[in-house]
């Protein structure tokens, strides 16, 4: 690996840890690459699809001339391992905010849960979470929400290709979901709870695939003091 190789184009598959933003992960990597390879100040690097701080898993980072591949990778289908908790909600639809609106789930059956999940497979209308990075009149929705301002999110069409490997251990339900670009799994968790009539929120989320790229080939070595270049892609 040389500075010329990196500037010609390289793809790194990162396993983003919990509570890191995608921006922080890319910045950490940029710093280490520039330091180790004495790269120019304007060295190009960026990620191909944001992963929420409360999510872990596959974050694709493109550098050099391969930053041109970012739009193509962003458009690819995604896969996530998902865990939700039913019978309770949060304002953020995930663990960022405290639990509210607890409800009794003693009458909820496993078959009801499986039936509810099946209803979301296919093209659906989905409202993004208020606590999201979507811009509203030039401001991020999460900034407005955290400032206590009322935010109206518009519905959008998205596609759930499959929901499989369902495991139920109430109040927790986990499954693997394949979806199109722009799908909010937090909103999916919330909507499943509404379908069941008892509420739900996202407790864990791990991105496992983006198109042809898999978490199995990803590395978290960018957190180490000495960066290693195992498990990277270059084509």
Automatic annotation (TrEMBL):
The Swiss-Prot or TrEMBL record describes its family as follows: Belongs to the pseudouridine synthase TruB family. Type 1 subfamily.
Its UniProt entry gives the catalysed reaction(s) as: uridine(55) in tRNA = pseudouridine(55) in tRNA
On whether Cytoplasm is a keyword of this UniProt record, the answer is no
Its biological purpose: Responsible for synthesis of pseudouridine from uracil-55 in the psi GC loop of transfer RNAs.
Which major enzyme category is it? Answer: isomerase
* InterPro entries for the chain: PsdUridine_synth_cat_dom_sf (IPR020103), PsdUridine_synth_N (IPR002501), tRNA_psdUridine_synth_TruB (IPR014780), TruB_C (IPR032819)
Which residue ranges does UniProt annotate as crossing the membrane? Answer: none
* Domain Pseudouridine synthase II N-terminal positions: 42-185
Q: Which GO molecular function annotations are given, in alphabetical order?
A: tRNA pseudouridine(55) synthase activity
EC numbers: 5.4.99.25
> Could you tell me which species this protein originates from?
Chryseobacterium geocarposphaerae
What positions does the domain tRNA pseudouridylate synthase B C-terminal occupy? Answer: 186-222
**Active site annotation, chain numbering:** 52 (nucleophile)
Output this protein's name. Answer: tRNA pseudouridine synthase B
| Pfam families reported in the protein's UniProt record | TruB_C_2, TruB_N
On the tree of life, the source organism's domain of life is Bacteria
Keyword line = Isomerase, tRNA processing
């Amino acid at each position: 690996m040389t500075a010329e190789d990196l500037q010609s184009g390289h793809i790194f598959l990162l396993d983003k840890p919990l509570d890191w933003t995608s921006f922080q992960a890319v910045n950490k990597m940029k710093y280490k690459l520039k330091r180790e390879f004495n790269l120019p100040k304007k060295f190009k690097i960026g990620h191909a699809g944001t992963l929420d701080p409360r999510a872990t898993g596959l974050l694709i980072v493109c550098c050099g001339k391969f930053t041109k591949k970012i739009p193509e990778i962003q458009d690819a289908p995604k896969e996530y391992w998902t865990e939700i908790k039913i019978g309770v909600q949060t304002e953020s639809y995930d663990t960022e905010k405290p639990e509210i609106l607890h409800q009794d789930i003693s009458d909820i059956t496993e078959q009801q849960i499986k039936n509810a999940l099946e209803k979301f497979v296919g093209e659906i209308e989905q409202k993004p979470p208020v606590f999201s990075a979507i811009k509203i009149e030039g401001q991020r929705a999460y900034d407005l929400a955290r400032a206590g301002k009322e935010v109206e999110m518009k519905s959008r069409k998205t596609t759930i290709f499959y929901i499989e490997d369902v495991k139920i251990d109430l109040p927790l339900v986990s499954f693997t979901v394949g979806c199109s670009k722009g799908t909010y799994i937090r909103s999916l968790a919330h909507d499943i709870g509404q379908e069941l009539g008892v509420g739900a929120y996202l407790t864990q989320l791990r991105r496992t695939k983006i198109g042809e790229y898999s978490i199995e080939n990803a590395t978290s070595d960018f957190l180490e003091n000495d960066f290693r270049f195992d498990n990277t892609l270059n084509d």
